[in-house]
Specification:
The chain is α/β, with parallel strands linked by helices and 303 residues long. The protein contains eight helices and six strands. It has a single domain, classed as 3-Layer(aba) Sandwich (Rossmann fold).
C-alpha cells in the first residue's frame, strides 16, 4: 500500500451479529403508563366524619396510638361472650366444664367474692391496652376500656338499683401512685360508671374505703409468692362506716386477675377489717353485702 492512499475505516460494530441480507424486524410499539397518576373521580355523598377526624389526628395532632374504638374495628375484637369463663374463679373453660359450683380449678377452694366478670384473656389487644394504661398513662384509653367493662357487667348482672351498687377500684399505694402516671383502676371505674349510668338511668357512686401499703411489684412472681407479698397490706379507712356498705353490691375493679391475691386481700380487708371494733376484737354481727370482681383480663391460666 502506498503511503499516499487513505487508510480504510473499519466496519461499524453490530451486536448481535446478523446476516448481511437480513432486514431489521419492525418494532412493535409498547404501551407505557403515564407518569401522572389518574385523577380520582369525585366522591359523591357524605364524608365519614370519623375517618376525617382520624386523618386530622394522624396528620397534624401527632396521635401516639389509635383510639380504642378504631383498634376494635381493625382487629375485629369484641368482649368475650358470657359462659366462656368460670364465673367463680374467672378462668377460661370449655362447654359444660363449669357450673354454679365452679370449675375443676376452683371447685374445692374458697373464694371471697360471689362472681367474676371479665372482658377476655390477658393477650393481644387487651394486653397491649392494659400496658399502655398502666405505664403510659393513657387516661382516655382507660375510660374507653372501663366503658367496655361496664357494659359487660350490666349484661352479666342485669338491671340494678344504682344506689345499691358501689364501684370500688382496687387502691394504689401512695408511693406507687407517685411512680405511675395514672391511677388506672380509678380511671377504669370512671368509664364503668359512665357505661352503667347509660344502662341503669343514673350513675352508681365510686367509693374508696381501703388503704394500701407499698409492696414490691407482683410481676414475675409465682402464685404463692404473690399471696405472701400482698397479705396484710390493705385495711379499711378509719372513718369508713359499716352501715354505708350494708345491703349493697360492691364491684371490685382491677385490670388483671392473675393469682387472685390482690382481690382476695381487698375482700379480706372489707369483710374482716370492717367486722372488728376499735379494740381489734371481732364484732358479733358481720357486714351484709355482696362482692363482685370486675377485671379487664385474666392471666396465669392454671393448667
Amino acid at each position: 500500500m502506498s503511503p499516499r492512499e487513505p487508510i480504510p475505516k473499519p466496519a461499524r460494530f453490530i451486536w448481535p451479529p446478523q446476516p448481511l441480507d437480513a432486514s431489521p424486524a419492525p418494532r412493535t410499539p409498547q404501551h407505557r403508563p403515564s407518569a401522572k397518576p389518574s385523577r380520582r373521580p369525585p366522591t359523591l355523598g357524605v364524608i365519614d366524619p370519623r375517618s376525617l377526624w382520624e386523618h386530622v389526628e394522624e396528620t397534624w395532632l401527632g396521635v401516639l396510638s389509635p383510639a380504642w374504638p378504631r383498634r376494635c374495628r381493625e382487629t375485629t375484637w369484641q368482649p368475650e361472650p358470657i359462659g366462656l369463663w368460670c364465673q367463680r374463679c374467672g378462668r377460661s373453660v370449655g362447654d359444660f366444664e363449669a357450673d354454679a359450683g365452679g370449675c375443676a380449678s376452683c371447685r374445692e377452694t374458697k373464694v371471697p367474692w360471689d362472681a367474676v366478670i371479665r372482658l377476655g384473656p390477658y393477650e393481644g389487644l387487651l394486653r397491649d391496652a392494659i400496658l399502655e394504661i398502666k405505664h403510659a398513662g393513657f387516661r382516655r384509653l382507660a375510660t374507653d376500656v372501663g366503658r367496655e367493662l361496664g357494659d359487660q357487667v350490666a349484661l352479666a348482672i342485669g338491671p340494678q338499683d344504682p344506689d345499691a351498687v358501689l364501684l370500688v377500684p382496687i387502691p394504689m399505694a401512695l408511693r406507687r401512685r407517685a411512680q405511675r402516671p395514672l391511677d388506672h383502676t380509678h380511671a377504669l371505674a370512671r368509664g364503668m360508671q359512665a357505661a352503667l349510668a347509660e344502662q341503669w338511668g343514673r350513675p352508681s357512686p365510686i367509693s374508696q374505703p381501703l388503704f394500701r401499703q407499698f409492696t414490691p411489684t407482683q410481676q414475675a412472681k409465682s402464685f404463692d409468692l404473690r399471696r405472701k407479698n400482698i397479705r396484710g397490706t390493705m385495711r379499711p379507712k378509719p372513718w369508713q362506716s359499716r352501715s354505708e356498705l350494708a345491703g349493697k353490691t360492691l364491684i371490685l375493679i382491677d385490670d388483671v386477675l392473675t393469682s387472685g391475691a390482690t382481690l382476695e386481700e381487698a375482700c379480706r380487708a372489707l369483710l374482716v377489717g370492717l367486722n372488728r371494733s376499735t379494740k381489734g376484737t371481732p364484732r358479733e354481727e358481720s357486714p351484709q353485702f355482696s362482692v363482685l370482681a370486675a377485671v379487664v383480663a385474666v392471666a396465669g391460666e392454671r393448667g
